[in-house]
Write a structure and sequence with these properties.
mainly alpha, 139 residues
Length: 139
């Protein structure tokens, strides 16, 4: 810091920028993957895709206490949930599919990035070591 002159800190600019298309793809995937997973869960639970055994404790309607139906605001908000068939099974299977789809897309992206992405070491990095260290037998 100087006494009489103004000091401005200059941050270095990155040599690369993220293309806006990649941001758009990421935003679309954040919206599309949950929708796809919960649609698949709905189809699995309702019997269209019968390859997945569903525990009986997840099937059925959700029952709310009587005070919910006596309160007008709560009854109007919770009526769609109470009339939806098997909501717990759809939520559990949907969340499971959401995690599986997210992991698969991340894995595919990592594999593609490994082959297409920038090199591991830049020209200013030190070269990797050529030999391994000795393993000590004195423990």
């Amino acid at each position: 810091m100087t006494k009489y002159t103004k000091y401005e800190r200059h941050f270095p600019t990155r040599p690369w920028t993220i293309h806006p298309v990649w941001r758009g793809i990421g935003c679309a995937l954040m919206i599309i993957i949950p929708i796809i997973s919960f649609i698949l869960a709905h189809e699995i639970v309702n019997g269209t895709l019968q390859f997945f055994p569903i525990p009986q404790m997840l099937l059925g309607y959700i029952h709310f206490p009587d005070f919910v139906w006596n309160t007008p605001v709560l009854s109007s908000l919770l009526r769609p949930i109470a009339t939806y068939p098997n909501p717990l099974a759809v939520l559990v299977i949907g969340f499971t599919l959401l995690v599986i789809l997210s992991v698969l897309i991340s894995l595919i992206y990592a594999i593609i990035y490994r082959f297409i992405g920038p090199p591991r070491y830049s020209p200013i990095d030190a070269p990797p070591p050529k030999k391994r260290g000795r393993i000590s037998r004195n423990r």
